[in-house]
Amino acid sequence: MKKLMNRIISAIENGEKVVLCTILASSGSAPRGAGSRMAVFEDGSTLGTVGGGAVEMHAAQDAVQVLKGKMPHIRAFSLAPEQVASIGMICGGNVTIYYQLLTQKDLVTLKAIVQALNTDADSWLYLKINDGAVEHFQLVDAQTAKKEPEFYSSRAVLRQEESVIYTEPIVRAGTVYIFGGGHVGQALVPVLANVGFRVAVYDNRDFLADQAHFPQADRVILGDYRDIYSKVTLTENDYVVIMTPGHQGDYEILEQVLQTKTRYVGCIGSRHKIARTQERLREAGISEEAIQSVHAPIGLPICAETPAEIAISIAAEMIQCRAEIR
Predict the structure, then answer these.
(1) DSSP secondary structure letters along 101-134
(2) d(CA 214, CA 218)
(3) What is the spatial distance between Cα 109 and Cα 117, in angstroms, rounded to a whole number?
(4) Could you give the maximum distance between any two Cα atoms of the chain, in Å?
(5) Angstrom distance (rounded) from CA 254 to CA 274
(6) Which of 76, 204, 229, 287 sits 20 to 30 Å CA-CA off 11?
(7) Taking the model in full, what pTM does it have?
(8) CB within 8 A of 43, min separation 6: which ones?
(9) Which tens digits make up the pLDDT trace of 206-230?
(10) DSSP letters of 53-69?
(11) In whole angstroms, what is the distance from residue 238 CA to residue 262 CA?
């Protein structure tokens, strides 16, 4: 998202126009969902995707026509088998794309989106369309969103009445703190970063607590597992993944984390190891409710074995957790 916005801003500042193709809604087996985007530039180049294949080809062609003077508009694609002749796809479902012409007047909002992507605060995109033309294109903060909660949730919302109103979460507050930067941690960071999580890695080993090992992490922290709050502050929006090399490190972190409300806590390890850790937590006075809130063993049960597979299972569980929050 950040790369796409920066490329669009650069083009507009150089005097170009850009058409942003945004999926407003999708259903069935459509290849991409609401919020997927592709920018089409004056030289015909593109960045981003609205699903590939024939839909993307037609979207790029439509966008070029908008750049040449055609009015911005909304187009629906049917991917149903009985209509395969129309666009040559048989995956099933429907996709609705809006072709938005971006010019100098949109730079304030585009730059606000980039700025928001560098923060840890909820924000949404608000788009109001009348007869194909944009009436409002702006970024909405959490305080403003509270006034109309029906429009601002964890998923994109499309309302079609007199005007078309589309809202989409741009930033979800919260950081994933991965305690333990071993093989699974190194596999997990890029997976989470690529699905929109902000990630910090915390390790007590100086040779691992190095940004070079985690180029897609926002922060890499060298610290003591016995005193994590000297280096981090956890909030109710944060996610915690615990995968230290041993039982003691897991226990030390869990004992501290479970005294603070967070969105998600997961701990890697065998059932025997987890059972022993739970016993120690009870002895330390941690409530049963808090202990049972821990996702352990961590990740969805997909028979994962390798670090890469385990990373996928953990990321999938966290995506599920994020999606369940309004």
Answers:
(1) EE-GGGHHHHHHHHHHHTSSS-EEEEEEEETTEE
(2) 9
(3) 12
(4) 71
(5) 11
(6) 76
(7) 0.77
(8) none
(9) 999 999 999 999 999 999 999 999 9
(10) HHHHHHHHHHHHHHHTT
(11) 5
